[in-house]
Write a structure and sequence with these properties.
mainly alpha
Length: about 110
């Protein structure tokens, strides 16, 4: 069980790292929100699942209740993170932020 927890937490950290790289590398506001919303949510799901599996290594009532609390937090974040990302994009659209477009050399002044 501990090895499964380590694998899940390690995969979650890989997704978090991909999200950080995407946020730093993508050119504009809208494209940066995609890795922030998707990869961070998946990284959190994997890390929290790994923590719940780790807690369940010693099965007793306290560890089962703790694992259930972790899964409730996981479900809450899994539902609210995409909704929050959508709200942030909507705020950017309402503020008038233009999406990035690749300019050709002849279009530049």
């Amino acid at each position: 069980m501990v090895i499964l927890a380590i694998i899940l937490i390690g995969l979650g950290l890989v997704f978090f790292t991909g999200g950080v790289v995407g946020i730093l590398r993508f050119p504009d506001y809208y494209s940066r929100l995609h890795p922030a919303g998707m990869l961070d949510t998946m990284g959190l799901v994997l890390c929290m699942s790994g923590l719940a599996v780790y807690v369940l290594d010693d099965v007793c009532l306290a560890s089962v209740l703790t694992a259930m609390k972790i899964f409730l937090v996981l479900i809450f974040v899994f539902l609210t993170s995409p909704t929050a990302t959508h709200a942030i994009v909507d705020a950017g659209v309402r503020a008038g932020l233009e999406p990035w477009t690749k300019q050709r050399k002849e279009d530049q002044p």
